[in-house]
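It is worth pausing here to work through a concrete case rather than discussing structure prediction in the abstract. The textbook approach is simple: state the sequence, then state the predicted structure, then interpret. We follow exactly that order.
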Amino acid sequence: MRLVLVGFGNLGRGLSRALIQKASFLRRSHGLIPRVVAAVDEFGAAVDEKGLNLTRLLKVAGKAGTVAAYKGGKRGKLALRVIEGVEADVVYELTPTNIKTGEPGLTHIKRAMWARKHVITSNKGPLVVAFGELDSLARRCGVEFRYSASVGGAVPVVGLAKELLAGNEIREIRGVLNGTTNYILTRMSREDAPFEVVLREAQELGVAEKDPTLDIEGIDTACKITILANSLLGMNARLKDVKVAGIKRVRPEAIRLAREAGQTIKLIGIAKRGSLEVGPKLVPLGHPLAVGGTLNAVTFELDLAREISITGFGAGPKETSSSLLGDLIDIHRTLGG
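Step two, the predicted structure:
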């Protein structure tokens, strides 16, 4: 299966390492032989219809800062030209998230679908801005569209719901969907430390971004709950439809009182038909959503199975490559591979 990687930052490189590591496994267990025929970043592209040497590509791009330094690579804004012109089966859209316009990922995905190429993405932006449009376009163009990595990183939230829980009606989705805020609240709980102190430490450790606004104000979680509402509940929600509160106002005293009552405070995203919400909520200690550190967790409330929860690592290139590879295998199976 011929692949194009659009975006060669942490996720693109993480996926490339996973493809190298899992090559024998994919062939042996799934009859799948992926071949990356093009890689694109903001500075240029590397193309080889016979397949790029990913080990060499990683080395060259790491040293030069662009895939264009690969032998025969070209510099310039080449993403659309590569998406439309290179013979490939699947386009991975792995560029940074833009939740205001969805660009450039939104255009990348549309052009790939119009070119009759299947799409796998980790990019929340296009899904928040135009999920319904993209879902409809994929059907019209007869291509597969997968986005497991956009919610939960390594946690197969979408796949679990669509495949294994297919016999159930999902009544409600509740989730701890942001590792940064969960880390901060966990540290505040364990050490009775103020929010500002823990945030600063999280930034020093690289757990929180230099500008952590999207995380701590609950916007990242709101994006993910919007995607889950649209993909699993059949809604046509936008980010503006989510009632959002972040964790800035959570004080150590509130966490201490919660602990004394056998509870903890987590930033929870909640999706049910007609209502989308993100905010700090009390969670009983011992409940599947009372996860610590940077873990993510999701609980589904179902008509037959009642409640099912899943927990795992929600961030990191290696972890997210699990979902990116899983989507590729799923497409391979769907196409009869």
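Step three, interpretation. The longest strand covers residues 263-272. Residues 2-153+317-334 form a domain with the Rossmann fold fold (CATH 3.40.50.720).
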